[in-house]
Amino acid sequence: MAKKIVAGNWKMNLVKDEAKALASEVVAQAKAETPSDVTLIMGVPFVHIAEVKNIIGDAENVFLAAQNCYDKPSGAYTGEISAAQLKSYGVDYVILGHSERREYFGESNEMLAAKVDAVLENDMLPIFCVGEVLEEREAGKQNEVVSKQLSESLFHLPVEDFKKVVIAYEPVWAIGTGKTASAEQAQDMHKEIRAMLTAKYGDAANDISILYGGSCKPSNANEIFAGADVDGGLIGGASLAAADFVAISKSY
Ligand code: PEP
């Protein structure tokens, strides 16, 4: 069975003291309130990784994610961060292929395949984002787009590695816009994605967590998570308020 996961994506928000305060609140509230079968993940900017790792300490159900990494192991790549460097700070998950990275930083499916490999080689778990833009949805091309993203970045993996990947379906038109996909639209796409994964990897696909992302908040998480193929959420804006983020983790 797929694990239930609620992952936060802080994006490029919060300075040091704010990040420490938010992480402390999330950990305290998650210890008291997040159901034990839910994995809670904070996806934080690189600069806050060491502090947040420290704050998470020995909390059993709270994990740490980075929001990107470079695919090369080391060397003359000024400004980049390798998977091995993230691992050395105790990072558990790495968000890859977020639509903002695809759009503003030109990350292609091919580049992302190399990043997926780097993350797995360093014993971390990728949270791999897929999703269509509005024009693609309006043209009915969402399945085609997502299928290409999955096959070009993930389907080279042997099944043992593929089982470590978390997928996040994030319709780009719903990210940060306040426009959520309906629970039905989310479940329909998640079911499609599950079928694509099953066609490639068979029953192993049933154990893959497929998260929904896009304006998910406490008031709609319950309905969205009710979908049979929705195993949790990737949360942007609402992950910046501890009470909202932890409330979402109770929305199954
Ligand atoms: C995201 O950036 O992954 C996201 C889902 O953002 P938001 O929840 O703010 O739409």
Automatic annotation (TrEMBL):
Substrate binds at residues 9-11, 176, 215, 236-237. One of its GO terms (biological process) is glycolytic process. One of its GO terms (molecular function) is triose-phosphate isomerase activity. Its EC number is 5.3.1.1. Its main location: cytoplasm. Keywords: Cytoplasm, Gluconeogenesis, Glycolysis, Isomerase. The keyword Cell membrane does not apply. HAMAP family: TIM_B. Belongs to the triosephosphate isomerase family. This is Triosephosphate isomerase. It comes from Sediminitomix flava. The lineage of its organism: Bacteria, Pseudomonadati, Bacteroidota, Cytophagia, Cytophagales. The gene is tpiA.
